[in-house]
Specification:
The chain has 71 residues and is mainly beta. It is 0% helix and 31% strand. A four-stranded parallel sheet has the order 1-4-7-10, with no helix packed on it.
């Protein structure tokens, strides 16, 4: 579920079953895979990959082109 106050760039690929908290911004060409949870007030840069079931807490910043894998 994507919170109504979150912004997801139209070029980002967000799978079903993803949770994105309020006030979070997901920038262009980012991929967020199923089961991932991103907290409130985060800034996820462009070309980031957030893998299956990864959890990112509240108020985190992930720089452009970062790869965050599960496990």
């Amino acid at each position: 579920m994507i919170n109504s106050t979150a912004h997801v760039d139209p070029t980002a690929q967000v799978d079903e079953g993803v949770e994105i908290g309020g006030g979070t911004r997901v920038w262009g060409l980012t991929q967020v895979r199923r089961g991932a949870r991103i907290g409130e007030g985060c800034n996820i840069g462009s070309r980031v990959t957030v893998d299956i079931d990864v959890v990112i807490g509240d108020h985190c910043k992930v720089q452009n082109e970062a790869l965050i894998y599960r496990g």
